[in-house]
Amino acid sequence: MVTIPILASEHRADSLTVNHSRKVVPVWVSRVETILRQCAQQTTWPSQVVGSGVADELDKLV
After folding, report:
1. Residue 51: which region, alpha, beta or left (left: phi > 0; alpha: psi -120 to 50)?
2. DSSP summary character for residue 53
3. 53 CB contacts (<8 Å, ≥6 apart)?
4. Is the Cβ–Cβ distance between 46 and 52 less than 8 Å?
5. Per residue in 13-32, pLDDT tens?
6. How far apart are CA 38 and CA 43, in angstroms?
7. pLDDT: is 37 or 59 the higher one?
8. pLDDT category, 9, cuts 50, 70, 90?
9. Kind plus residue range of the DSSP H or E element containing 58
10. Model-level pTM?
11. Which helix (H) or strand (E) holds 31?
């Protein structure tokens, strides 16, 4: 009889944790997406820099 209330309280605690996670996860995903977008905007790809693309480097070797 003692185990039933304990299991019920564990279930409530788990439910609260799950509900909290459902609310928090989208916020964190949004933050990570924002950080990735900012990093992508600040990144300069070699092909965007004059004279340092892969084709330019290969031309120097030939």
Report:
1. left
2. S
3. 46, 47
4. yes
5. 678 877 888 888 888 888 88
6. 9
7. 37
8. low
9. helix 54-61
10. 0.43
11. helix 3-42
Q: Could you tell me the CA-to-CA distances from 35 to 21, 24, 40 in Å, in that order? A: 21, 17, 9
What are residue 26's phi and psi, to 5 degrees? Answer: -60, -35
Give the tokens for residue 46: 């070699």
Contact 53, 47 (CB under 8 A): yes
**Tokens read off for 1:** 């009889």
- Specify the DSSP element, H or E, that contains 55: helix 54-61
Cβ-proximal residues to 52 (8 Å cutoff; 6+ apart), any chain: 46
Tokens of 35: 């950080």
